[in-house]
Amino acid sequence: MPSPRYRPPHNFGLGGVAIGNEFQFATDEQAEATLSAAWDAGVRYFDVSPWYGLGLAERRFGRFLARKPRDEFVISSKVGKLLKASRDNEAKRFFPFTTSPNTPHFDYTADGVLRSIDDSLQRLGLDRLDFVFVHDLSPDNKFLPEDWETLWPTAANGAFPTLTRLREEGVIDGWGMGVNCPQPILRCLEEADSDVHLLASQYSLIDHANAVEQVFPKAREKGVSFVVGSSLNAGFIGGEHRYNYGEENTLIAEDKLERLRKLRAATARHGVDPVAAALQFSRAPDVVSSLIVGTAKPDHILADHAALQTKIAPEFWQELRSEGLIHSDAAVPESTGG
Hints:
By secondary structure, this protein is α/β, with parallel strands linked by helices. The chain is about 40% helix and about 15% strand. The strands form 2 sheets. The protein has an 8-stranded parallel barrel with strand order 1-2-3-6-7-8-9-10, surrounded by 5 helices. Strands 4-5 form a two-stranded antiparallel ribbon. It is globular.
């Protein structure tokens, strides 16, 4: 049996992508209202990153959370990118809607990790991060200065052992990869001593076969768990005309559109909210410790929170499986909701 690993204590949380103005401009007041709605609904896990709005999300989350009792919530952030402010910054190149003066610089060294954590704490106004993800060291990241595999030894000799040491010293409770592709997670599971990984854009009703067949079995062997992000594929399942992230996320492949049409037809036949089905599906596997959603709209976080309690009859999941819309080995919610 693998040794016990850290698992986030809350199975639902609010992510910071939208509050960092990833998709559109959101005001400070909108961000505050969204965080307040989440808190009032009982949400106590929050995930941020220096990348989200190039510091904007961390500042907004911190402004809210610094007024709350620190022992009542957990927060994760990311390492791998350092932010440098200047009057000739390139912030708009990365986030057209951000108000940040920062340009990101990738750094997966030991010193880079320590500085990243310290910088995040200063932006957040908090005394600690509960756990940390090594961010975007992944084949889909076009902004990396070199190929991810070329940069991997830097992380393997710098970021990974440093985070393990911080965990052993009690500075953080756990760490893992935070990526949109499976390759870095699988490699980290083989080479490093990780605890919990952010599985972004890899486990949804639209796309989950590789996670079921490759990623989850290896995670069970190692005793690690996952925080699942983008279970709606960046709003795609909920009706947004985008699929996941990136500059070309509005150019959606026909097979994804067809799969969504079939999913929506099935939900209509059974009177099921597709968002509720998607969220409950992504939280069902035994290796999933938490699910995060990203929004800058108070009504959306409340709707997502309620969707996890919606009753869904077993017959719905049976139809999805019989039609090949979910993998034969994919977990489905054991109960009819909650």
